[in-house]
Amino acid sequence: MLAKRSLLSAGSRSSAVALPPRVPAGRGRLEVVCASNAKFFVGGNWKCNGSVASVRTLVDELNSGVLNSGVEAVCAPPFIYIDYVMQHLDSKKFALAAQNCWIGGNGAFTGEISAEQLIDFGVPWVLAGHSERRALNGESNEFVAKKAAHAVSSGMSVIACIGETLDQRNSGSVFKVLDAQMQALVDEITDWSKVVIAYEPVWAIGTGVVASPAQAQEVHAYLRKFCQAKLGLSVADTLRIIYGGSVNDANCKELAHMEDIDGFLVGGASLKGCSFVTICNAGGSKAK
Ligand SMILES: O=C(CO)COP(=O)(O)O
């Protein structure tokens, strides 16, 4: 586990952070704030990238990297490469995730893979609700929440992804959007010890436009307050809230310094072994 960070009052936390532009005021309606108390978590989402040859190279690069002992690192290859990665990636350093699973159990669902099958195959983690699936596959908040809850109840750990679009940010509805995404998860998931929340603003994904540390911290602190109000202090305190969107080896350290950023979900930079290892190690002193 990470060394426990001190609990701060809402005032002392927010005064340390310069508010970013275009974020609406008046969201601080949840009063009590707590800090995270969990191991730094970094996921690599390989998305629909790679070939037999490039996956082999990436696995070799990852295996030769040296990770901080305190980091929990997870790689999410495309389904078709999971078997190879499972056989060859150093499981003492990296766990495996699937990028998606079906909303329920086995059955007549052509093209789907169930959480039960992933567990059967030895894959402990799964992503749910990545913005690309929300946008391209029409996955609603409720669908994502039901899928995440089913995966958790099947024994999987879930990286549940949320985040606003640029239009939503510009129109001042960031927290309304996040409230709806989070509330759907709160309504369905009963065991939060198996959940990591990935805040991935859509405008930062694959654009090279990373959220500023202050922007990300503001949202993460808000999400933690939301969880405290809905799920209680102990869940909020231990829940990992990780940031995703144009994280790379140059910007990860500054982001990792922020109090409520408990790790990263990495796309493009996770395809380069040395960059991903650098990002995994960005938690530095956050790890025991
Ligand atoms: O979508 C992401 C991770 O799930 C982030 O992607 P990039 O790191 O390429 O912006």
TrEMBL record:
Pathway: Carbohydrate biosynthesis. Pfam families: TIM (PF00121). GO terms for cellular component: cytosol. It comes from the Eukaryota. NCBIfam families: tim. Homodimer. PROSITE patterns: TIM_1, TIM_2. Belongs to the triosephosphate isomerase family. Coiled coil: none annotated. Keywords: Isomerase. GO terms for molecular function: triose-phosphate isomerase activity. CDD domains: TIM (cd00311). InterPro entries: Aldolase_TIM, TIM_sf, TrioseP_Isoase_bac/euk, Triosephosphate_isomerase, Triosephosphate_isomerase_AS. One of its GO terms (biological process) is glycolytic process. This is Triosephosphate isomerase, chloroplastic.
